[in-house]
Each structure stands twice: as C-alpha cells, then as structure tokens.
Amino acid sequence: QVQLVESGGGLVQAGGSLRLSCAASGRTSSNFAMAWFRQAPGKEREFVAAIAWGGSTVKYVDSVKGRFTISRDSAKNTVYLRMDSLKHEDTALYYCAHRLSITMSTMTAAYDYWGQGTQVTVSS
Length: 124
Fold this sequence. Notes:
mainly beta; globular
C-alpha cells in the first residue's frame, strides 16, 4: 500500500506561482508513474500532469503547457508540481496519484493510490 500526502496549496493572485509537493511512502517498486489531477466545484476530475519515475518522461494537459512543470526527487520519494502564471481557472482541489506501471495515463481509473488533496485558489 502506498500513502500519498500533498502539500503546498494556498491562495494566490492571478499571475502568481505555487509549488505543490506529494510525498509518497510504502512504495515497493521503482516501476511506477505519478500524476497530478484537479477537481473544481461542479466539474469532473481532470488530468493535469504525469511523470514516469524511471525515465522522467512527462505529460501535460494542454491548458497548463508552458505554465506548469512536474518533477520528482527519487531520493525523497516526492513529486512536485510547479505552477506559474496561475489563472483563476486553475482554482481546484489538486490530487496526487500513483500508478503501479511504467506507462503514464491521463485517466483517473488508471491510478491505484490517491492523496487527500490540497486546495489551490487563484483570485481574479
């Protein structure tokens, strides 16, 4: 079993930046992928970014390309999401997810473990 704990959310003005962190524990294999999803009120959970642990290949949803950067620190078992040029539309509860596969996925059902979420609120 994998436990994921997100941190770094908060309130920021449009155009500002935040860095989210997700610390993982209980992982037994290096063959996995991690991702960030977000869910705004009244909307479906949306894929944001993913990273394959072994090769550090990444994937982003189009709406955040050029603004968000996903990265990882293997020694700390931590994945990060650097968010720059934040927009009001980025306001959501951000979730960290873990998938026991070398293949990244944009689907929520593909991930086995989830954190409890960290709130990001971007004021207009």
